[in-house]
Amino acid sequence: MPVVVEQSTPAHELAAQLRDAETSGAPRYAALARRVRELVVTGELPVGTRLPAERDLAAALGVSRVTVASAYRTLREEGFARTRHGSGTVLELPEDRPAWQWQSADVPGVVDLAHAAPPASPLLGPAYADALTRLDTHFPGSGYVPMGLPALREALADRFTAQGLPTTPDQVLVTSGAGDAAALVWEALLETGDRVLVEHPSYPGAIRSIELSGGRCVPVPADAADPDALIEAARLAARQSAPRMAYLMPDFANPTGALLSPTGRRRLAATLWQQGVLTVVDEVAAELALDGDPAPHFAAGLPDAATITVGALSKAVWGGLRVGWLRTDAALVERLSTVLGHRQLSVGLLDQLAATTLVRDLDAVLADRRDQLRTQRDVLVAAVAEQLPDWSVTVPTGGLSLWAQLPPGLSSAALTAAAAPAGLLLAEGRVFGTGAAFDDRLRLPFTRPAGELRSAVDVLAGLDRQLRGRATPRPVPSSTVV
Ligand SMILES: Cc1ncc(COP(=O)(O)O)c(C=O)c1O
Prior knowledge:
- This protein has 15 helices and 17 strands.
- With 482 residues, it is α/β, with parallel strands linked by helices.
- It has three domains: 7-91, Orthogonal Bundle (Arc Repressor Mutant, subunit A); 100-121 and 365-479, Aspartate Aminotransferase, domain 1 (Alpha-Beta Complex); 124-360, 3-Layer(aba) Sandwich (Aspartate Aminotransferase, domain 2).
- The strands form six sheets. It has a seven-stranded mixed sheet, with helices on both faces. A two-stranded parallel ribbon has the order 1-2. Strands 3-4 form a two-stranded antiparallel ribbon.
- The longest helix has 26 residues, at 362-387.
- It starts with 6 loop residues before the first strand and ends with a strand.
């Protein structure tokens, strides 16, 4: 990943962060390099930071200049830094994220925990049957509805309004899913080299599509155990790296499950807006609150043009229903719809008719989905506690997945590689990060039935015993992660 911006970190501040660098038998320079790496992949040291001069850091740490020079050299060799004449040594992230592609899980006996995608809602079939009876009223027209079916835009606007975010249909654009909506935003609004704040870890599809549009991701540490810590971290990152946009999942983030508090989200929304950052708010899981009421929309209380909210029926209803949307101010919707029109004239009409019914009936759809996910989450949490007692999870209050912390010595990549032949598909931790972060993490979706979740944990427990302490394999083909 390219360098973002060049802010210096004073030698004494970096020295304080490096003081506890574990040596555990390794040479001092290697321990320093390892600690800097940790600080970069967790976002504590932003990408783009200029490291102090070797002489200054050596003095602040009380080590020789050769030690610091060797640590910097190691960072350069590993792709975590580069040195340019005149501007010193600048931190960056290596581009060694595992490649990913969709893993076919439609094989009998295979348990799919690679994708956080539930089976279809029981209300999907009836909605399509009903849509089919109404389709012929559209036959005399062209069948193209470039901004979306008016009835669907209206149903979505009504739902936002009822939830405290006043919205008119001309503020809604229909897309082929939430991913499509976000990709459209990057395509239309990002210029090459623009910085985008992203939670770290984040949804890999978003990281990828930002990068494909020429954007540079600036990782901001996110943690389900302390979700509101994101606010200060994002404020600092916004100040340091002057991002043009942010991509956030305030509600049950993928993969952490983190939920920003009502006050926290108001503060973060206001801060980013004041700093001139346009925030893309991904609400694909926002309605999947399992233990309480959904939080207020992130966009509530801000000018409409301050945010672009993207959403879809993919998680509440089914990933096979390719209908999503974005919501922002009407002028921006108009602009985005022109860009969308260059690549697709319309989302399928039958799908939009079915989606209109489902949006109007979304409370019924969600009641069923939430019951299912709550039961499955509890089964998965109990199975992990019983069979994998030294794995640690923060139980999310909604969403689709746990973000497990693995015990020392267990590699997520190694688990993923060993699980596939045992009929268990996983998405390793590193695909959710930038650089090489999160090999000590595994996302465990609770989107499969209870029996499959229990057998998945049986497999994981067996592999845990076998693999503990083995080295991380180099990048393995992993999944297209949802
Ligand atoms: C956070 C997040 N956003 C967007 C998407 C893509 O959604 P869609 O299938 O509606 O394009 C996913 C899929 O898993 C997701 O997890």
